[in-house]
Design a protein that fits this description.
It is built from 11 helices and 9 strands. It is of the alpha+beta class. The chain has 2 domains: about 110 residues, no CATH class; about 200 residues, no CATH class. The strands form 2 sheets. It has a 6-stranded antiparallel sheet, with helices on both faces. The protein has a 3-stranded antiparallel sheet with strand order 1-3-2. Strand 7 and strand 8 form a beta hairpin. Helix 1 runs parallel beside helix 3 and helix 1 packs antiparallel against helix 4. The structure holds heme C. Heme C (HEC) binds next to helix 8, helix 11 and strand 9. Heme C binds next to helix 8, helix 11 and strand 9.
Length: about 375
């Protein structure tokens, strides 16, 4: 690219100086060459400010010089010095920018997620989903799309540019060229809107998880059921958090992906508060497991964390989810146990290499009536 720019600059100098020596000093030839070179810089996909600036300075200089009847030697000196100056000033800025981008590329490198994402036959959805599940897939997709704000788009664009832009040297330094794209790669842009990197404790320890008390019909009223559905979806969005997906060229080249994690303890819903919220994983182990942690699920922490097998409530409830149900709720000695499906929707497909509706995991909740 640099060679092409140098070449264009040289042609420009030669043509202009050649014209300056010819009798009559033809303005037409000079202007036409300028236009052709301007066109070529566009053609090279970069609005090359180096050459453009050179044209914008050398040309007026040519017309003034012609008008004041200077000597060709004077013009040669003027045009060469202007070119050197333009290259010096803009080129330096370009190199600085190039260095900054190289640092950012190191901070947000392409990573392969392939090995981190095993697909398990367990998660395949073989049964017809219940109407409730179908509905909730749509609700989740909608919710994710609305969470993907401009900030999300800018972040992805910035990461994409950082890794995929063909050339930035000289094209960005004066705010030309890449400024046509709104999200310039910068640390601030890339970090914007991410979840804080802190773990959030579970309100109750694992030992306090109550077991089902045998009464199978849930105490929840109908409207409570609805609220809990919405609340579960909200939890999935917070956990998977689309803003943190980053930019994905393919599964081996993902930049800026931040592992799934909760950013806050889900707020109480109606009279129910969360005591524990655990993740049942289907992907990483041969049999389903529940990750054991005193923090809310955070994949960075759970990778390699201890696990337990599913308990008396979770085992049959997970079976129901695998058969296509969305949410299972039972009474327990102290409140309610609930298992909610985390299914693949369209925004997860590419990364998880799964199909819409596949079961990627489940949240196992222990809820308690507030104040009890
Ligand atoms: C940019 C890639 C990417 C996208 C998009 C993505 N995930 Fe993930 N997800 C991962 C990775 C990688 C893991 C494995 C844990 C890790 O290494 O961070 C994972 C793990 C999970 C797990 C835990 C699985 C287990 O058994 O431990 C669940 C559940 C999950 N994802 C659900 C979702 C859902 C639902 C969506 C869509 C809303 C989604 N993911 C979108 C990359 C992604």
């Amino acid at each position: 690219m640099l060679i092409l720019l140098l070449f264009l600059s040289m042609i420009l100098l030669v043509v202009v100086n050649h014209a300056a020596r010819r009798p009559g000093r033809p303005v037409g030839v000079v202007s036409a060459t300028g236009l052709v070179i301007l066109f070529l810089t566009f053609f090279a996909e970069v609005f090359a400010p180096l050459v453009v600036m050179q044209i914008f300075i050398v040309y007026p200089a040519f017309y003034i010089w012609r008008w004041s009847s200077g000597t060709p030697r004077q013009f040669l000196i003027i045009s060469v010095s202007v070119t050197v100056l333009v290259y010096g000033v803009i080129g330096r800025k370009g190199f600085e920018k190039e260095r900054e981008w190289a640092e950012l590329r190191e901070r947000y490198p392409y990573q392969s997620l392939e090995a981190r994402l095993p697909t398990s036959a367990m998660s395949l959805n073989k049964n017809k989903l219940s109407d409730d599940s179908e509905n909730q897939l749509e609700v989740l997709e909608e919710k994710i799309s609305t969470t993907q704000s401009l900030r999300f788009i800018y972040r992805r664009q910035a990461l994409a540019q950082l890794h995929e832009a063909k050339t930035i040297l000289f094209s960005d330094s004066m705010g030309f060229g890449i400024s046509r794209m709104r999200a310039r790669p910068s640390d601030t842009h890339i970090k914007a809107g991410l979840h804080p990197d802190v773990n959030i404790s579970q309100p109750a320890s694992l030992l306090e998880v109550p077991q089902p008390n045998g009464r199978s019909s849930p105490v929840l009223l109908r409207f409570e059921n609805e609220e809990l559905r919405e609340w579960h979806i909200k939890g999935i969005v917070d956990f998977t958090y689309p803003n943190a997906f980053g930019y994905m060229r393919d599964i081996r080249h993902v930049a800026g992906f931040e592992s799934h994690r909760f950013s806050e303890l889900p707020a109480p819903v109606l009279q129910w508060e969360v005591r524990r919220l655990d993740l049942a994983g289907l992907l990483t182990h041969e049999n389903p497991v529940v990750y054991v942690s005193e923090n809310l699920p955070c994949m960075d922490e759970l990778r390699g964390a201890p696990t337990r097998s599913l308990d008396e409530f979770e085992t049959p409830a997970l079976e129901k989810l695998r058969q296509g149900e969305h949410l299972q709720v039972v009474n327990s000695s102290e409140g309610v146990r609930m298992l909610g499906a985390i299914r693949c929707v369209k925004q997860c497909e590419e990364c998880h290499n799964s199909k819409r509706g596949d079961l990627l995991g489940a949240f196992s909740y222990t809820l308690r009536r507030i104040g009890k």
